[in-house]
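User: Second chain of the day. Same drill as before.
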Amino acid sequence: MKTGIPLITILLGLSFIQLVATDLKPQMVQLDKLILEEDFSHPRTLEKENWSQRQHTRWAIKEGVLKGLPSSAEFQASAKDHQGFEPRLSIPSCPDEFAIQFSVKFTGGKETAICPFIEFGHHKARLRWSNEGAQLMANGESVQLDQDASFKLKSGTWYHALAEVKGDEFFIQFSHGPQLYGKHSSIDAEKDGFGVAGFKGGQVELDNIKVWSVKAAQGNNWAKHLSTLKPGPHKILKTAKTKSY
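Assistant: Same format as last time:
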């Protein structure tokens, strides 16, 4: 297949992504079994058990990454809600307690009151970006657990992260970037994997994904590392619903 990008440029870019991602080490958990590993080096149809293209948004493996676009104009016109204005994808095959390494890039589009975000459990632990920075929320986005006002997305930039979910705790670290932590009872309920949503009308790219189950014991140095984090008190954002959708 011919593309407008030289092959050597693609290969060098992918090697850099893989190299940067490996500098992240788990802190809260101890890794157990590797459940899923994907570098999207071979184009193919996505397996539904691992990749859920939500709201009829369109995802395909191209140029060594997984690229997502909003739903078609025809679908958006025909749907009354959940119209897929932003590319959305989930990995429902994650265990209840897990660690996930991933690289993500958001390109183009407009911010909304909801998007863009990545989440760990649908509406359970959600990291949303806005022009005010990054905000870690839980329980149907009713409570803020942590935030970083300086962490603002740049269009077309790769971000490399390692996230950990265990019990009622969540921790995420970004390569050469911030760390965010939260503890809330809603995180320990109805876990259903990893999810991402882009800017309205924009594009999302994913790469270098690894998902592990985790051992029962916490990370050996987690207590020490936790003492260095300063998430601040929880902030109530709205009245929590009995069940979030």
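The first helix runs from residue 7 to 21.

User: Great, on to the next one.
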